[in-house]
C-alpha cells in the first residue's frame, strides 16, 4: 500500500508539470530560506532521533524548497506544547494523549485553557504499553497477571498511567497483584531477572533499551494486552491506538505482540506557514523508504496510519493539502 500511495503522489506531481508549460524553478524562490525548529525530547530518548530524521530528509532537498530544519532537545511533550503555545517552536513531537489534552485544555493544561491554534501534522511510531514477564512466571495473557508480583513503575510514569487506564478497563486495581512495586526504570530488569517480581510494565517505542537489558539477562516473554475491554478502551479514547510490537526485536521473542498505546505525533500551530508544512510533509511521505531506514523506531511506519492515528487536534492546512493530494484522507 505504501508504494501505491507514493506512486499516486508522484503521478500527481508529474501531471501538474505536464498539464502546462514546463517552467524552470524561480531562483528567487529557490534561494528564499525558511527556518523550522522541531522540539523533541532528551537526546538519549527516541523523540530526538525521530526529529533528526525528519530534518535530515528535509535538509537534503533544501535547495528545492528553501527550508532549513533543526531539532531542539527538550524535556518532552508538555514542555514542547507550552513552547509551541508561546511561539518559541515551529513544530514539536508530542505524545498523542498530551496533544489531546492541550487542544481541549484538560489535565495538565486546565489552567492555560484550550490551545485552539494547535494543529496536528502526522503521527510517528507507537508508544505501546509493554508488559514483560519472566519466561518461567506462567504469564501468557494480561489476565494471568492477577495474583502475580508486578512492578507497576513510579507514579506519574508513562507505563504507570497506561497501566492504571487498562486496570480500570478490566475493573481491576493494583490490589489484584500480590505485589505492586514502584521501582524506577533503571531497576526493573534486575528485579525481573533476580526473581523479585514476575513482570514489569513500561511504555515507549521499540526497540527498547529496558527490554533489551532484561532479554540479555534472563529469558523473557512479552505479554499481549488485548481483548474486548482493550478494544472498548481504544474505541472510546481518540488518543490511543492499537499497536503491535514486531517479533524478532528481542532474544527469545520471535512472534509479534498485540497491545495498545499512545502515538508519537508531529504537531505545529495554525500560525506556521501552510506551504512550509506542506513541503515538509511531502518530503517525508515521498521519501518514506529513506525516512524509515534512518532509525529502527521508524521502521514499521505506514502512510495510512501516519495520516490518521493519534491526531486529535485539527490537521494543519499544509498537511491536509498533501494528504488530500495523496489520497490519504
TrEMBL record:
Keyword terms of this UniProt record? Signal
**Is Signal a UniProt keyword of this protein?**
yes
Q: Which domain of life is it from?
A: Bacteria
Q: Where is the signal peptide?
A: 1-19
Q: Could you confirm whether the keyword Phosphoprotein appears in this record?
A: no
Q: Which NCBIfam families match?
A: TRAP_TAXI
What is this protein's name?
A: C4-dicarboxylate ABC transporter substrate-binding protein
Organism annotation? Skermanella aerolata
Which lineage is the organism of this entry classified under, starting from the top rank?
Answer: Bacteria, Pseudomonadati, Pseudomonadota, Alphaproteobacteria, Rhodospirillales
Amino acid at each position: 500500500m505504501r508504494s501505491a500511495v507514493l506512486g499516486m503522489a508522484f503521478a500527481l506531481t508529474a501531471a501538474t508539470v505536464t498539464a502546462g508549460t514546463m517552467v524552470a524553478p524561480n531562483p528567487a524562490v529557490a534561494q528564499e530560506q525558511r527556518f523550522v525548529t522541531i522540539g523533541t525530547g532528551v537526546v538519549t530518548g527516541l523523540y530526538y532521533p525521530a526529529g533528526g530524521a525528519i530534518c535530515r530528509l528535509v535538509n537534503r532537498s533544501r535547495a528545492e524548497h528553501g527550508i532549513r530544519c533543526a531539532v531542539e532537545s527538550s524535556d518532552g511533550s508538555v514542555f514542547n506544547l507550552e513552547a509551541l503555545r508561546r511561539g518559541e517552536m515551529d513544530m514539536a513531537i508530542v505524545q498523542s494523549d498530551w496533544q489531546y489534552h492541550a487542544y481541549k485544555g484538560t489535565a495538565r493544561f486546565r489552567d492555560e485553557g484550550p490551545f485552539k491554534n494547535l494543529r496536528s501534522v502526522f503521527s510517528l511510531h507507537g508508544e505501546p504499553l509493554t508488559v514483560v514477564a519472566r519466561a518461567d512466571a506462567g504469564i501468557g495473557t494480561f489476565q494471568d497477571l492477577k495474583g502475580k508480583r508486578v512492578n507497576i513503575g513510579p507514579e506519574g510514569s508513562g507505563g504507570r498511567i497506561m497501566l492504571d487506564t487498562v486496570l480500570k478497563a478490566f475493573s481491576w486495581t493494583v490490589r489484584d497483584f500480590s505485589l505492586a512495586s514502584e521501582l524506577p526504570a533503571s531497576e526493573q530488569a534486575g528485579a525481573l531477572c533476580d526473581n523479585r517480581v514476575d513482570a514489569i510494565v513500561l511504555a515507549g517505542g521499540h526497540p527498547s533499551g529496558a527490554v533489551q537489558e532484561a532479554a540479555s539477562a534472563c529469558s523473557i516473554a512479552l505479554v499481549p494486552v488485548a481483548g474486548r475491554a482493550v478494544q472498548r478502551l481504544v474505541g472510546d479514547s481518540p488518543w490511543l491506538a492499537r499497536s503491535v510490537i514486531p517479533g524478532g526485536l528481542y532474544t527469545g521473542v520471535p512472534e509479534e505482540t498485540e497491545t495498545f498505546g499512545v502515538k508519537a505525533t508531529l504537531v505545529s500551530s495554525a500560525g506556521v506557514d501552510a506551504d512550509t508544512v506542506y513541503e515538509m510533509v511531502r518530503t517525508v511521505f515521498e521519501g518514506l523508504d529513506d525516512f524509515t531506514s534512518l532509525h529502527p523506531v521508524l521502521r514499521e511506519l505506514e502512510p495510512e496510519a501516519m495520516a490518521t492515528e493519534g491526531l486529535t487536534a485539527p490537521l494543519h492546512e499544509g498537511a491536509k493539502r498533501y494528504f488530500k493530494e495523496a489520497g490519504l484522507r
